[in-house]
TrEMBL record:
SUPFAM superfamilies: Winged helix' DNA-binding domain (SSF46785). Residues 16-95 form the Winged helix DNA-binding domain. This is Transcriptional regulator. Gene3D superfamilies: Winged helix-like DNA-binding domain superfamily/Winged helix DNA-binding domain (1.10.10.10). It comes from Dysgonomonas capnocytophagoides.
Length: 98
């Protein structure tokens, strides 16, 4: 059982970041308020985690106006999809002890 946690990605250590990525990989795009409601987190908490994921280039931000209201939505990048998949695979190996 050699270094069974080596495949885990530190970017996704937080439960909030894991939740954000889980929501985004199954949707084309999700807006800020929807993510906030799904994960039951505060604006500031969510914003800091989204910023960290954006810095790692695993998500992209799209700001636009819907009517006269600003709307910020997020989607996963190809890099993000790949590294998240690798992280999930590493978690499964850890759980299954393989």
């Amino acid at each position: 059982m050699k270094d069974i946690i080596s495949g885990l990605n530190k970017v996704f250590d937080s439960r909030v970041r894991l939740g954000i990525m889980s929501v985004l990989v199954v949707n084309d795009s999700v807006d800020f308020n929807t993510i906030k409601d799904l994960l039951n987190v505060t604006d500031g908490n969510l914003a800091s985690h989204l910023k960290a994921l954006e810095k790692e280039e695993v998500i992209v931000v799209k700001k636009q106006f819907v009517g006269r209201k600003p709307n910020t939505s997020y989607s996963v990048t190809e890099k993000g999809r790949q590294v998240f998949k690798e992280h999930i695979n590493a978690l499964e190996r850890l759980i299954n002890n393989k």
